[in-house]
Amino acid sequence: MRSAPPLKVAVGGFGAIGQKVAVRLDEGIPGLTLAAVSARNLERAAAVVGGFRKPVPVLPLGQLAEVADVVIECVPAEVFAEIAEPALRAGRILVVISVGALLAHPSLEELAAAYGGRIIVPTGALLGLDAVQAAAEGVIHSVRMVTRKPPKGLIGAPHLVAKGIDISNLAAPLKVFEGTAREAVRGFPANVNVAAALSLAGVGPDRTTIEIWADPALERNTHTISVVGDSAEFTMAIQNVPSEENPKTGKITALSIIAALRKLGSPLQIGT
């Protein structure tokens, strides 16, 4: 039996998440091969990939789709379109980690459909998205998520700055936000991509309710999701270890991308 050629993968963004994904691809994932990376600091990225088993070029974001079948987005939300639009226009698979940016760019789904592209949202720091998607095939009455994070993982969020909320010296947990997933993504773009993923899996960004707490007693990012539907009612909770390089995200985020990539090259797929 003849096996398919490996999918060429490009990583856009070479920070805490992107670099871990690129390293794992260089080490080897069946059915996949690293084709290129992109980074804000080109010299630093070139030095890192120069030490890979198979060094690859460092390219501008917009050129990644020219050399890859799969483009992984690991960039700040403000440059999301620079990597997403060229990838979808080229008919590539776009793996998105800045899920909140999808809410700000609703036309991307139409762009993917028009050019034969595909958008994949990894589970990321959340859990149970398969169950939420299954429940959404019936009727979901409510979806609520409560996020609790160490204050250092929330400092600098636009919502806190706009409201003048100081969380630098908290002595007790403080609820800093309650509203819809759409509002949460606007106010905390680097913190709650999980809220966007949950909303897209279920009842949408305007019917998904989010609470965000800054808790000085915590060392881990915690998310508790409660879903009530006509097929099931369930509550799920996860505690994620923050990344050493970027406390705004969890270690499991990069691993989730790697797991999603592994599915692309595997003859067996577990989960929806």
Tell me what the CATH architecture of the largest domain is.
Answer: 3-Layer(aba) Sandwich
The radius of gyration is: 19 Å
Tell me roughly what share of residues is in helical segments: 25-40%
Low-confidence stretches: none
Query: Mind telling me the CATH class of the largest domain?
Result: Alpha Beta
The average pLDDT is 92
* SSE pattern, N- to C-terminal: EHEHEHEHHEHEHEHHEEEH
Tell me about the biggest sheet? Answer: 5 strands, parallel
Query: Strand fraction band?
Result: 15-25%
| Name of the CATH homologous superfamily of the largest domain | NAD(P)-binding Rossmann-like Domain
Number of spatially distinct domains: 2
- Backbone structural class: alpha/beta
Number of distinct helices:
10
First-residue to last-residue Cα separation? 27 Å
Number of strands: 10
Q: Could you give the order of strands across the largest sheet?
A: 2-1-3-4-5
- Categorize the overall geometry: globular
